[in-house]
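Annex B. Sample input.
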Amino acid sequence: MANLRFLFLLVVITAITGCAQTPQTPTPTEAILAPTAAAVEPAYGGNVTRAITAEPSSLDPHAAPGSGQNIILPYMYDTLVYRDMDNNSQPYLAKSWEIAPDGLTISFTLRDDVTFHDGTPLNADAVVFTFNRFKEAKSSAGSGLATMTGVEALDAYTVRFSFSAPSATFFSTLATPYAGIISPTAAAAAGEAFGQQPVGSGPFKFKEWQQGTAVVLERNPDYHWSPGEISNPGAPYIDNVIFKIIPDASTQLAALQADEVDLIFVNAPSHIARLKEESSIQMVEAHLNSLIYLGFNLAHAPLDDVTVRQALAHAVNKDEIIQAALGGVGEAAFAPMASSLPGFDPSLKAFELGFNPAQASEMLAEAGFVAGDDGTLSKDGRPLNLKLLTYARAPNEDVAILIQSQLKAIGVNVEIQQFDTPTAAKAATAGEFDLLLWRYDRNDSDVLNVNLHSSLIGSSNRFSYSNPQVDQLLDRAASEMDDAARAQYYIEAQKLILADAPWQPLYSPVDVLAVSKRVQGFQLASMARVLLNEAQLTE
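Annex B, continued. Sample output.
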């Protein structure tokens, strides 16, 4: 844990400037701007409205993780630590911590001045309650608690966690919104309805949930424990944050241009180009440690045959996807680890199943598929027809259509099924697909464990992928406290994963935060979280 340095780098730039680009190869993001600083004298009041694609099913941090939930939770719940922009853990509710030499216990000293939205104290008992509940929930978001054997209150504001083996993923788990501390009193009173009546200690508290329309949070007037590097230690200046549910990206864009919302995330190149022309909009490039991939369902024949998976991977033209679907904005991926995460290594390029349609056809012939008069492949009289599942988020539809065309070129018919995010996520977890066009955003290399460890088949491992050697390497990485050694385990695991081909990595996306210029003083934290502690409205 020697690398847990005390450095906090929230991205706040006091003047609007263009993001650096390579002059010889300008892209549609070359005019992306940085957030502006608020006025010296704060202006109180007003609402900030943010569009979200998916409505959360619950605001309980221990419920099944979801995209809408992940966006809203950080405003309501505080965590023991947070991640700075260098991905290092920094104090938040925990003032300090001590790690035993053997890594089997970690003790945290808490702030003693924090209260929940219901007025009850946030103390050691609340932390114990939260993490016992988190562990019992068996959520994929709690994978970093796998070796946690207990948590106890040593006194009113000291908590000790115990582990069966050192956990290299524990601190990254602590910084996720799913590890936000909840009020034991409120949880006991609400029972299963806690997700609709959430109580945390964050800068905003739950106000109302307009089902299908919006989730509204209001300013927490008692808040005074912002991290020290935030210049406003007290309550936010704005009155409310409204999360407006707008599934369609084009509708979100129109709402921003019509001043119906103040903030959206944009990843469609055409939308970025249009917003560049809007003088009332500021744009900020966001980095979420993300990867877009094409997954294969190993529980469905013929995808249980590694030769077939490798052949399909060879048929995918990533460069065409980036140029045609992304407008040239994005980085082709060759490994299952995002290039911004520890454990990525350029040498893995040698193990990539690169674009080679001739080889793809040869491998499918080797697997027993023959082409009919119309060019469609079949085996034992059964045509090679596959269902590709994805969710409604730009540019997924365009990417899916390109993959459909690329596989059609080698005789494979693909039917595209695109649903709203909750429906698609449910179908994906249930294994109701052959091909899965999906995305992950994760601040730790344990993303491989979460998605591909065999113990999570039927949960976050949606692909029925199992390789004991990969499991062993991921397990070793999860308990390896030396960063270099841990990274090497991930590199070795990726070599095996690339050969097994449960995924074909496609690209790392460029996401853009588009914000009305009437919103000043917002900040970006790790994983592109938008902080509104100091946000103010100019009108």
